[in-house]
């Protein structure tokens, strides 16, 4: 077996190790979340104007599992980011290692911010719109499982979307992306973000605007941050060349 094949096997072994650590941490947080999942559930349903129903004992367990999983994902993000950093750090310079490590707290903060945006802003808009559609024609009947699936579909994607600035900054610091390439694909990125906003919101103009604008601002913020990182990197390289 040649050295190249050995290196590939070592990389796969290292990757497997990092993934196992992430999985173990997620399972640990999942088990811990189950201790408090009843309190989390009560907090989430405290302001509902309607009662949630269950169609069987297994549905309660499934809802608890969904809620505990979201908490475990949020809690495990810093650990997952750190393990990914440990995996890629051998290929980074000393400065790049410090920069990448500094992004880890931001990943957690932006994930929570995205979840909060979906839950406190988007969810009430969509839910109120759907409730007004029924009017007096239907009796609203919500099962606990269907309701929380609906909540997760409207909140969890935004947790990941809000991490876009940090991901772009990291890729820019590695030289994989630059602000000029992001500017060139701006119209395509806008199109994708607008489609996402339309798909997750009710079919009314106000809701579409309220979701589209933050997503577009998020992209522009990502481009601006990428430009800052890129310019700093170019200045440092110019100084090093002079030396």
UniProtKB/TrEMBL annotation:
Signal peptide region: none
InterPro entries tied to this protein: Sec-indep_translocase_CS, TatC
UniProt keyword terms in alphabetical order: Cell membrane, Membrane, Protein transport, Translocation, Transmembrane, Transmembrane helix, Transport
Transmembrane segments: 19-41, 61-88, 100-127, 147-176, 188-206, 212-230
Topology within the bilayer: Multi-pass membrane protein
Record's subcellular location: Cell membrane; Membrane
Principal location: membrane
Pfam family, one: TatC
PROSITE patterns: TATC (PS01218)
Family according to the record: Belongs to the TatC family.
Function text: Part of the twin-arginine translocation (Tat) system that transports large folded proteins containing a characteristic twin-arginine motif in their signal peptide across membranes.
Quaternary structure annotation from Swiss-Prot or TrEMBL: Forms a complex with TatA.
The protein, known as: Sec-independent protein translocase protein TatC
Gene: tatC
